């Protein structure tokens, strides 16, 4: 081959000798090099200007739209918090039925407490300007910062707050007839068909407008909110042009309700208009944000100019650099040609022909030699031998005769006469638990590493062997050894060395399956099939194990299996009720009963799959598609990667149960609020009767546990504490404003006498009789002072 290279160089040298070198190819093509180097920069600048700038404009518009949506969500959340706060205030006992009959003039302390409460509530949210309490009765009263009797001409405008529903948004007339502010109104008592008053939350217009202006972040354009009747209830107009708002409203009616944004032209200026909905308790509001496109794309004006300047500078720089680069690139070629010419004439002069023709000839010759070497390598016996073994293990030669297979084995260099065959299967486990080192996508990597380890160890112990890589984290080994040789010790030693090496290097666990031996090549395929079948009887733990098929008789019967249906039913019921606190204990109990006949993988895997299928049925029954719940993940595939009971428990809770429970809780929040409001009204109407959490839950159509949890979340106190507070408040009224005996009062509010005394003292600090006596003495002293 070296001699051939020398002859080729000599022939090229003789050819060059005959050429008349007159003009440099470099000089001819220098102008072309300049154009090639310069034009792309110019083209790039133009493309960036016309295409990239347009793309950035689109991206800025999209970013602007996303900002509007996010800020609209913030506004929606502010109003939703107000509605939620109003609902909670309306169900407080202080604003309950007791206000219907209380004399707020005599009980000035109660009036003072109400005023203090309204002042406190006024500071709970930045959008609140005032919180008023209107009470309708023999005397129509308005609480603002103080107690106030309404005049006859004021009663009608406040009476209107009782006529439009339980909770709604409207315009509150205020103290001045000429003043009108956006307000959230909630009648009291909450959920009552015959309200006698209302809580009126007046919105701070300045702060609301500041919040609304966040939808026009560039300080230009207009933003307003329309109510269900398409009337503007809040408007932040930076254009100072009422015609613009009117034209924009008309334009909105022409577009599809579902369209979130569009462009609008007014007075030869283009605006980017964003639409969205704010779902309120009584209607559907719509926000409209219009910002001029010139404000959104203003940064691009400077950017586009910079791009043009940079493109021009890049063109000049390209010309300079192309001259320098072309000279440097040509230098080694000139040197090479000089060396070739020195071999013959000793001097080389430039020619008009392409100098790269010589390099091309040499490259073609080297390529031909490279292809020749590749063909020879592909014909190597080792590669064909490995391919043959893989096909043999997979059963592709089951129709061949034994004699034909023997001949092929001999042709590949095997010694097979008077020899036997034994197979090993090395299965890696623990990849699912070793997230710190490998991921599930590294299966081929760890399989490759294991195959290399087995190759080195087998070379030390066996004379004839072949390593086979499988795609399921398994590596096989086929060993050929002389008949009559005791190979069991070598096999065991090899298995132990593989386990130690894989544990140390890859940090994974190993299951080594050892087949029985055979003297027939055709039966090699069945050796691997048997190992695949019986290795499923491994102990379902992430630890090193050796399964010897010769000792399978000592294992328990594979068909002895009992499934814990009772525990499965309890797990399903626990998930259905949302009591996930004790689910881990139940799963452990399920696995313990499942493993009573031995922790074989086939038993555990089948039991786990059955349990997951049952839970999946519950998920489907709840109206949730598992594909959406688990983001399209193949949960059965993940199950195959779990190899310990502990990791299974963790996987089951974090990957299956918690996502399902969170989805259910999110869907049930609004329903629970409706149920709690119904139960609150039920307590207020039936507190004097024998009422309990169970009875209320049955009346509301839910479970006691769910009602208790929802009541605490929405009302803020436990069910029993709320019931006790209602009863104690009623008892205090009867003690102060009636002559009923304490025994009768206890029965009236739903208590036995002995328990009433105890619970009253626990709540108020003194017995009911002493409470009545102290307040009677206090009233006498006040009468004496007045007289």
From TrEMBL:
Pfam families: HTH_18. Residues 677-774 form the HTH araC/xylS-type domain. Keywords: DNA-binding, Membrane, Transcription, Transcription regulation, Transmembrane, Transmembrane helix. Gene3D superfamilies: Homeodomain-like (1.10.10.60), PAS domain (3.30.450.20). The keyword Cytoplasm does not apply. The keyword Repeat does not apply. GO terms for molecular function: DNA-binding transcription factor activity; sequence-specific DNA binding. InterPro entries: Homeodomain-like_sf, HTH_AraC, HTH_AraC-typ_CS. The chain crosses the membrane at residues 30-52, 302-325. This is HTH araC/xylS-type domain-containing protein.
């Amino acid at each position: 081959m070296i001699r051939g290279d020398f002859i080729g160089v000599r022939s090229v040298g003789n050819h060059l000798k005959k050429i008349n070198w007159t003009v440099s190819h470099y000089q001819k093509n220098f102008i072309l090099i300049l154009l090639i180097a310069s034009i792309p920069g110019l083209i790039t600048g133009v493309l960036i200007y016309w295409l990239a700038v347009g793309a950035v404009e689109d991206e800025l518009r999209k970013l602007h739209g996303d900002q509007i949506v996010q800020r609209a969500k913030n506004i929606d959340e502010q109003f939703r918090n107000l509605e939620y706060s109003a609902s909670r205030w309306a169900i407080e006992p202080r604003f309950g039925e007791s206000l219907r009959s209380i004399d707020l003039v005599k009980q000035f302390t109660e009036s003072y407490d109400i005023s203090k409460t309204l002042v406190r509530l006024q500071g709970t949210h930045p959008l609140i300007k005032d919180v008023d309490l209107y009470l309708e009765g023999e005397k129509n009263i308005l609480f603002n910062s103080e107690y106030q009797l309404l005049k006859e001409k004021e009663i009608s405008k406040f009476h209107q707050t009782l006529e439009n529903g339980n909770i709604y948004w409207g315009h509150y007339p205020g103290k001045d007839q000429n003043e009108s502010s956006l307000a959230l109104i909630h009648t009291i008592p909450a959920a009552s068909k015959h309200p006698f008053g209302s809580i009126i939350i007046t919105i701070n217009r300045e702060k609301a407008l500041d919040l609304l202006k966040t939808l026009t972040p560039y300080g230009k354009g207009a933003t307003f909110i329309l109510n269900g009747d398409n009337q503007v209830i809040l408007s932040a107009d930076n254009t100072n042009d009422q015609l613009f708002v009117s034209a924009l409203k008309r334009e909105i009616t022409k577009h599809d309700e579902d369209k979130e944004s569009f462009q609008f032209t007014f007075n030869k200026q283009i605006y980017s208009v964003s639409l969205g909905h704010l779902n309120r308790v009584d209607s559907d509001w719509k926000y409209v944000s219009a910002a001029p496109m010139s404000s959104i794309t203003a940064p691009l004006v400077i950017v586009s100019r910079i791009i043009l300047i940079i493109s021009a500078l890049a063109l000049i720089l390209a010309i300079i650099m192309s001259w320098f680069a072309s000279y440097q690139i040509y230098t080694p070629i000139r040197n090479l040609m000089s060396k070739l010419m020195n071999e013959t004439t000793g001097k080389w002069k430039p020619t008009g022909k392409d100098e790269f023709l010589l390099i091309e000839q040499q490259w073609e010759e080297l390529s031909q030699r490279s292809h020749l070497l590749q063909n020879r390598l592909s014909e190597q016996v080792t590669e064909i031998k490995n391919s043959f073994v893989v096909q043999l293990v997979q059963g592709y030669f089951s129709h061949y005769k034994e004699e034909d297979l023997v001949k092929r084995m001999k042709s590949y260099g095997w010694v097979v006469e008077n020899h036997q065959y034994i197979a090993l299967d090395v299965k890696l486990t623990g990849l699912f638990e070793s997230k710190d080192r490998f991921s599930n996508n590294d299966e081929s990597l760890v399989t490759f590493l294991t195959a290399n380890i087995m190759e080195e160890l087998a070379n030390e112990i066996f004379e004839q062997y072949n390593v086979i890589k499988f795609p399921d984290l398994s590596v096989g080994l086929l060993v050929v050894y002389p008949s009559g040789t005791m190979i069991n010790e070598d096999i065991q030693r090899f298995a132990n060395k593989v386990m130690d090496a894989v544990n140390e290097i890859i940090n994974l666990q190993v299951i080594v399956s050892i087949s029985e031996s055979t003297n027939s090549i055709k039966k090699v395929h069945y050796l691997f099939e048997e190992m695949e079948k019986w290795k499923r009887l491994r102990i379902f733990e992430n630890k090193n194990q050796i399964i010897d098929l010769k000792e399978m008789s000592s294992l328990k019967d594979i068909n002895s299996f009992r499934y814990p249906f009772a525990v499965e039913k309890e797990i399903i019921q626990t998930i259905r009720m949302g009591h996930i606190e004790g689910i881990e204990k139940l799963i452990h109990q399920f696995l313990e009963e499942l493993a009573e006949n031995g922790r074989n993988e086939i038993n555990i895997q089948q039991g786990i799959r059955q349990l997951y299928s049952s839970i999946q049925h519950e998920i489907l029954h709840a109206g949730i598609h598992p594909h959406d719940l688990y983001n399209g993940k193949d949960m059965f595939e993940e199950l195959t990667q779990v190899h310990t009971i502990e990791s299974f428990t963790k996987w089951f809770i974090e990957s299956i149960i918690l996502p399902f429970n969170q989805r259910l809780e999110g869907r049930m929040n609004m329903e629970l609020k409706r149920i709690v409001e119904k139960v609150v009204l039920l307590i207020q109407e039936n507190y004097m009767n024998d009422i309990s959490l169970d009875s209320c839950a049955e009346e509301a159509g839910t479970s006691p546990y769910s009602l208790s949890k929802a009541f605490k979340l929405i009302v803020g106190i436990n069910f029993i504490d709320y019931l006790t507070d209602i009863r104690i408040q009623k008892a205090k009224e009867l003690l102060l404003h009636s002559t009923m005996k304490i025994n009768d009062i206890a029965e009236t509010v739903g208590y036995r006498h002995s328990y009433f005394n105890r619970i009253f003292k626990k709540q108020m600090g003194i017995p009911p009789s002493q409470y009545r006596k102290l307040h009677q003495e206090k009233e006498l002293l006040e009468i004496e002072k007045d007289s």
